[in-house]
Amino acid sequence: MIITRSDIAMNSVSMNRRQFAKSLAVAGAGLAASLPALAQVTPRKLKLGYDCFSIRAFGWKAAAMIDYAAKLKLDSLFITTLDALDSFEDAYLREVKARAQDKGIDLMLGSWSVCPTSKAFNPKWGTAEQHLALGIRLAKALGSPVFRCVLGTRDDRRTPGGIDARIADTVKVCQAVRSRALDAGVKIAIENHAGDMQARELITLIEAAGKDYVGVTYDSGNVTWTLEDPIDNLTKLAPYVTCTHIRDSMVWETEEGAKVAWTAIGEGCTDPKALFAKIAELCPGIGVHAEIISGFNIDFPYFKPGFWDVWPNARGADFAKFLALARKGKEVPRFNPAAGQDRQQAEQAYQKAELERSLAYCKNVIGLGTKA
């Protein structure tokens, strides 16, 4: 699939420049018309927490993460790496669970790729099935209703068979542990991760595996890496969403396409107020976890020949909404430590500031969280 400035062609929709512009205007107008109504909806008191990846530079273990969540007066903590656990023994897991309960913090657990053919798969925890089975056991022990995992990254789109083949491989792994998940009462929550799957592709995976035990970790930042609009993506995924990772994105146009930079919540060109209202409307009872990963940008040269070859399921109407974001965004600087500053200390201070500023926005502007 090739997109040029003189002729934009999508896999499912062929249109000339004038037709594309018309569809973009219609899509943009429809989205704009819906936003005021959404913005008027005040989210119910959704629980507010953070994902530990937001402060990865600290290298904290579970106990320190829990204490930090309590200090910030949050409702929950999403531990998305098994490395944060000092042990997988039951006695230790009971201690972690008790510590969180004593401080009024809900725990959610996750890990990484469970697709054995993904470039992101790491055999550290055994086979893909063993990794998933381990995660389910640990999640149950900690009281987490979900075990978040991922297929892979956007690099998997260029593997043999493309993303559709990787989806099929992931479905097989999930089905192999179905009884374990159901018996444990833990839902496998697959994230739209790092540009791996668009909304329709992730829905295909969930439906094929079985939505009785497999759901979605909705990540609003990763949506922009699949050339989609966060609210439109959420609307499609809402029936399957079991947990969330939220951050903002800044998208701006370039000569070859667009660039995307993730930002603190409230500092991008998406509409967090409308997004949170939509979460409250379509995903009642689902908490919000800030996962802030900022300071860099990614290039999406969709006008270059060959770019669309690995996006077999892309649709023009979805892409039009992404373009609407790009047309209102602006370039943002990358993060770089000051001259002579220790890199790790600079990253720790930067990540902490980005997260806490995002949480303050969620509390003070949106009204999220159940604690004063």
What structural keywords apply?
372 residues; alpha/beta; TIM Barrel; eight-stranded parallel beta sheet; three-stranded antiparallel beta sheet; 11 strands; 41% helix; globular
Helical percent range? 40-55%
Number of strands: 11
| Sheet with the most strands, sense and barrel status | 8 strands, parallel
Using the coordinates above, name the CATH class. Alpha Beta
- What distance lies between the first and last C-alpha atoms, to the nearest angstrom? 51 Å
- In terms of per-residue confidence, which ranges show pLDDT below 50 for 5 or more consecutive residues? 1-41
What is the CATH topology?
A: TIM Barrel
Order of strands in the sheet with the most strands?
7-6-5-4-3-2-1-10
The CATH architecture name reads: Alpha-Beta Barrel
| Overall tally of domains | 1
Radius of gyration: 20 Å
Which structural class should the secondary elements be placed in? alpha/beta
